[in-house]
Amino acid sequence: MFSSKIRQWYKANKRALPWRESQDPYRIWLSEIMLQQTRVEQGLPYYKKFTENYPTVFQLAAASEEEVLKMWQGLGYYSRARNLHATAKHVAENLNGIFPDSYKELKKLKGVGDYTASAIASFCFDIPEPVVDGNVYRVLARYFGVDFAINSTEGIKYFKELASELIDKGNPAEYNQGIMEFGAIQCKPQSPKCGTCPLNDGCLALQKGRIEQLPVKLKKTKVKDRYFNYLVLRSEGETLIRQRRQKDIWQNLYEFPLIESKQELDIQQLEEHPYFTALLAGANYSLTLFNAQPKVHKLSHQHLYTKFWVVHLHAPIENGIPCQELDEYPMPVLIANFVEEYSF
């Protein structure tokens, strides 16, 4: 009864989305990687851009990582883009462009976890493997009144088993897409449409007044504050950027030379910093602060308090690039927004 109601609701209410018009594993995989931790409205333009520029896995594999990161710019969670490119190369070069057709083999692909493997297996190959994403957790937790935390080991196991029992084995693709869509549109995190819900007669959370309490989630990791000071060098239409190589946020993206500090720096503290003195050793320069108040850039577990210091030099910049070429490099949104605001 539960699964049939979900499917009936889906047939009447599903949104027209381009990846739903295909059973091509490449396009399904692309959409699922893009929509992880991303709203459909935000991910849709990127999906269209990628499928236009890379209509097959071979074309995505042939692109450079830098090009892929530039195309991904603004979507966040850049490790997804790096894994996407690595998997495309693996499928194109080692699997003749053919994606695995089993959950077990799909899960071996870089960046593909339980959810994505289940989605591709069911959507493309009609394998009755249940998907469990944030929307599914919410629907199941509310309807069945489940108190297990969705991000606990016990909870993840329980919900996967529950989802396995409920899946429509005769039509797993429609059911899986249906329950995800149901959570996105009907059983929303805030202000769910309980009055028109086809499951409201059996929903334990609704009966017991616990809609806002479910699903249960363990508290997130404490947010870490970081203080970034970017040195924006200017000389004769040139500037200097560096590629982030360390295993940290924004790996392989480009930024201006960076001094990270334990607290905000004033102009004197900045000029006395060893990195600053090494970078500008003997140079004739003038220094101004672009933004009096730090720009606060919020990531999932980090808040970046950022100052942009403009350094005008009276000599050419070693290894500098023309300012007009800045938009050719993949950059974090924080840097890209500054470039646009500063108007080089």
From TrEMBL:
Keywords per UniProt: 4Fe-4S, DNA damage, DNA repair, Glycosidase, Hydrolase, Iron, Iron-sulfur, Metal-binding
Cofactor list: [4Fe-4S] cluster
Top-level taxon: Bacteria
Domain HhH-GPD as annotated: residue spans: 34-185
EC number: 3.2.2.31
Keyword field contains Aminoacyl-tRNA synthetase: no
Gene3D superfamilies: Helix-hairpin-Helix base-excision DNA repair enzymes (C-terminal), Hypothetical protein, domain 2, Nucleoside Triphosphate Pyrophosphohydrolase
PROSITE patterns: ENDONUCLEASE_III_1 (PS00764)
Top enzyme category: hydrolase
Chemical reaction(s) catalysed: Hydrolyzes free adenine bases from 7,8-dihydro-8-oxoguanine:adenine mismatched double-stranded DNA, leaving an apurinic site
Family matches, as Pfam families: EndIII_4Fe-2S, HHH, HhH-GPD, NUDIX_4
SMART domains: ENDO3c, FES
Co-factor remark: Binds 1 [4Fe-4S] cluster.
Family assignment from sequence similarity: Belongs to the Nth/MutY family.
Known role: Adenine glycosylase active on G-A mispairs. MutY also corrects error-prone DNA synthesis past GO lesions which are due to the oxidatively damaged form of guanine: 7,8-dihydro-8-oxoguanine (8-oxo-dGTP).
Record protein name field: Adenine DNA glycosylase
Organism for this UniProt entry: Zhouia spongiae
Gene designation: mutY
